[in-house]
Amino acid sequence: MRLCRAGSAGRCSVIHSTHLPRATWLLVIAAALWVPTGTAQVPAHVAQVDSGLTQGKARLVLRHAAASVELALVGQSRQYSPHHALPRLRQFFKHFPPRSFQWVHEEARDADWFATGRYRVRATGEILRIYAHWERRNEVWELVTVHAFR
Amino acid sequence: MTDSRRLGASAKQRQRSILIWSGIVFAVLVLTWIAERVHLRALQRWGPGRMEQIVDKAEERINVRFDAMQTAMLQHAAALAGDSLVVAALHDPTRRPELVRHMAHMRLLDRWSVAVYDTSATLLAWQGASVAPIALASPDTDQVRWSLAQDGTWRQALELWYPVAGALGHVRLLQLLYRHTPVQNEYLRDFRIGEEWSRLVGLPVRTSFDAPPLIEEGRTLATQDGTVVGSFVLEAPSPASYRGKVRQTYRDLIALWITCLLGLALALIWTRYRQRRSASWLVAFLLALWSSRYALLYIDVPGRWQAGKAPLNPLFDATHMASSVGGGLLNSTGDLLISALFLLATALMVLRFAYHWFREVPGPNESWQMLSQHAGHAGLMLFAVACCLGMTVLLGSAARHAVLDSTLSYHSREALIPETLVWVVLCSLAVMTLAVVLIIAAVFRVVLGARLRTPEAWQGAGMVIALVAVIALLVVADRSFALPWLVGLAFLGVGIAAVFLRAGHGLQWFTVRNLLLVTLVVSALLYPLLFSGLSERRHSRMEHAAAYFDRGFDPSVAFALRDLLERARTDTLMAAAVAKQDSVGLHDAVLRLHHGTLLASRGAFDLNVQLMDTNFQVIRGASPTLTVWAEHMQAQGPASDEMETEVFPEGDVGDGRAYIGIAPIRARGILAGWILARVAPEVLPEEANTPLLRTLLSSGFRDLFENLSLGSFHDGLLLRSIGRSFRHFTLDPGVAQGLQDIPALWNIDTYGDRRYEAYYLDRGQGNVVGVRASVVSVFDHLYYLLRVILAGLSVAVPFYLTGLALRRAAGVLPARRVPFQDKVLNAFLILAIIAVIPVGIVGERVVTEENTKAIQSWLRNHLQLVETALAAEARGNESPFEVLERLSLETLAARMGVDLTLYDSQSLVASSRSRLATERLTEMRLPVQAYEALFLDRYKTAFVAQELGSFRYTAGYHALVDAQGVPRYVLSVPTLPEQERIEEERARTLAYLFGALLALMTLVMLTASLLSSALARPIARLQQGLQAVGQGRFERRLPVQTRDEVGTLAQTFNDMQGQLAESRRQLTLQERQLAWREMARQVAHEIKNPLTPMKLSVQHLQRAFEARAPGIAGRFDALFRRITTTLVQEIGALAHIADEFASFARMPARMLEHQDLNEVIREAVVLMREEAPSTISLALHLPQEPLVVQADREELKRIYINLIKNALEALIDDAAGTITVTASRKDGQAVSRVSDTGRGIAPEVKDRIFEPSFSTKTSGTGLGLAIAKQCIADYGGTIGFRARDARGTEFFILLPLSG
Asked: Which of B246, B404, B543, B598 to mutate to test the interface with A (most CBs of A within 10 A)?
């Protein structure tokens, strides 16, 4: 669930779920400022990763990955080629199969898009934090970073 | 039963056994599946009580382990406390040095450390790391005491105080329980004993070592004396996760049965293939083989059995190497190895089939002609070449992805033999290369073995088309698939050469010599493919580094900081601590806060946190940078209550850009204070100019910047840089000009004797980013090639051992004959190995020793320089050590350009890199070995091997002594920038050494090959000459080409051969004469035989005429007498002439007809009765019925006449005698006998009676019986005799009855 979206100026206030009325209010304002059509649609690149993480499909997550992807999946952060990132992410899904996933926070800047989310592991119910970072290159949002950490 | 039938029956039997086994395995599989179902259903009925039981059992095991740990500590401490040396040292301080030496060489368990204190808490001796060594005070009781020791948040240890007998002091033993490192990388890892326990019980274990325990709900960890030192919590598995684990166990078993079934299916198809040997069964087998491979990948075998288990787990971990290309064949390092083995199996099958199908191996001499013939079939050639290039392209792709899709350090030059996983990758690729070469050989074997016929007129055109097509394919492979055309050509060449090189038994390839050759060839083929991947990865890294360097402020850092502050803002514990201004609680809250944040996950940043009250007065944390910000905020006055989290860039700090963030902390909705945080790049590569500091880099930085230099230019002027290579302040004009046309440029930059591969990226508006890396030198190529060769050799070893077993099974080992050439080659090989191994070992030791000396020399020089600098700083009579009391160590270190650590007699006093000390990355106590050398042995400098995580280095220690020569301080240089250069020098020297040895070995083998060939050639010729002589061919003469003993031997052989030829000629002549003579005698004998009856007849006629009535004799009578007399004389003359000219006569042609033996014998007897004297009785006994035999009538009659004549001659001197001739039928044979009552045959001549030329008579030729024996043998009969001891002789003839 997206609670906040910052303006292009680089300022973004993160709203905790306990402050829901204010969050809703700010969300509306942010949406009004940000989306010209007035409709807060989930961008395709975020939706794809969302589906991938929800279904545990690595290929979907990495469909628009950059030439070098930084992965830190409950461990050290490393740069991976997309061909390498795919089996690495599959391995992660094998060890931590998803029960559910949802975005908690998103933030966009000029050529960067950040998002964090909650990933619940199927077998243990453990919750992992997910961090994703996209960069806009040649008018395409490319996934450059995915972190999963406790 | 024929062989094929027998083989068929054996194969059927084998197939039946395979099917039976398959049935058994399938049944077990089904049973396992049923058991899984039943077990899981049973688990569903389990209540929470059962889970508690599991947890209780696990807790029990952990307690037992904890107890065992304490018992081990107790035993060791007790042993040490009771040691007489310890007691003596505590009694008598002068014996302390002995104790120090003893403990310096004591062996301790991992993560243990030990120390001995006297009653006044003075440290006497120690060994290993120490936790909280400063603040300790030994207990004054004489009881064993357990407690917890800790160094801030960095280390915690279980502490045991054991009293020495007589209350003289204490032994302090520590077992490390927890260690936290500021960064996580390949060297540094956190250690938690809870993780060990977790592996032990298979459940997540959380530990907390605090007294009282922080985890209230957990089980307490109490020592043997009841002291609580911490607690642990076992996370009970949820029923679902427990079921999942059980299910996983069953699935692992099912995967095992499926693997067995796949193996059995392959075995079944293999037996079928061996029975039929058809292409279709080969295809079926290969399909089954690769289906099995993918099935194994699908069920994740054997990776699933390794998950989480050392030591094979890293092999199947996708973190290190994995690629999505190839459908999972490169899913991990282990999978790559297994795929390589499958490919090798495929290649061997295809090769075997190709050679089995086309048994005739074309010789090298025919090759060109055959190629020319086949070239006519341009399509076939094209297909073959395309297949082979396709295989090579696939291999190249595998090699590239093995490099590009990995995080392995292929470039590391720390040792000639790289880390295990890189080694496995190299071995796998070597196996794959071998397989591809074999497949190419098989393809060309089929093409050449097909022996297609092409009209001659088309051959030339076909050849041209084929050549053009091959060139075109090579170019396509080069341009489209990144396979250099030379490499493609090399693969084709080696594959084709392999077809012609193969001769004799295929097992011959498993010899040391051939495997060496194969290894060299395979390595040479693989290296360009591998290097292509390495080069691409290097370029990709340079491009990525340029992009990262160009970014400046990293918005992801701002995001991570904001994430941290948001957590802080909503953290209730922090809010409470801020509200109460509880400094300690705040510290814990900040640490807890950092854990689990995005910033901690990124792990490459320095975080400073400052907590302030509502008026921006600092409560906790006093970073100078942040204090400035706090003061700035204080100056601005009270902040608005509505102010939210803010993050903003601070400005340039080194290369990276720091961010400042501030967030309000509210307690129950009311503003309680502020948290101010600053995040900056933690350690930048430009600072990490020593290997020691590089170990403190997080892995992300190592990936990105290691061994690179980066520079940023604006309008051609250098703005900032990292690394050492961008020393010029302006951009090269050539590069600037080049970037006018293209946005990015690759270039080779040369500065002095250094060459760099450079990448320049035009960012527009006059901004250019440059990245440089040292060019790959010939040395680098040699180094990496050596690694590939060594990997190939390690693959060759199992091949050789397999070959030994196969050759032994095939009965070719030990070899029955070893060619001389092979013996010479083997001798040279053994000689080379004997020479190379000691040289290699000694060389490696010498280089290592020299390297150690060089490092020590550098350290000593630097330490002496530091002391000289201190002496120069000294005022008046100040000693250098006194200067240190007023001069900051940081200043001194910066001046000398090295890191420095200062110790007093035992403890660390200061460090130029305070982080090393505060984060406990360096020991707080002087290593006991250094103490021993400097304080006891009074050396000026000492060197001690140290470890930082898993990083090993040498540290130098230098004593600063007072006027009496007593060490007052110890200066230490942990490591030097030069150490890396020295290490690289060592690697380089070793590479050259081993490269030279390998080249030497190759040269020796080549020389040996030529020499053995030259030596063996004349011997082979001599052998051929001897074989020719043995076969009777004397015309072959050996060429005498050498002037040595072998040449003399050849000359002697030729002389001997000439003599032998002459002897042979004379012998032949003699033999021929003898033969003619023998033939003449035989012919004469044959002529004389008919003449005798003629003579007898005439004599008979003469006697008859004389016997008529007297008185009628007249003129006729006289005439008749004269004529018959003349006739007799003439016949005699004829016999004489026959004797004389027998050589011109011929044996009569034999005419075989059915003859009645009775008649033949009767005629012979009638004739001989006339010859016999009246005193001799010639009896004849013949049966009534005819005895029909197949024989020449005249020849048979002559045999009987001969026998009767011999009998008459045996009786001639006797007054009376009897000759009996009989014939009868017996067992289908005609048995005839001629017996006499004569003198018999002397025993000494019995054996020679049928020999030609043997006769007891003076007038005989000795041929009669020999000819008789030969004739009877020709008729299929037998002739023999029985001598009856001076009572006569009986000759018998057995002839087969006709019809």
From this structure: B598
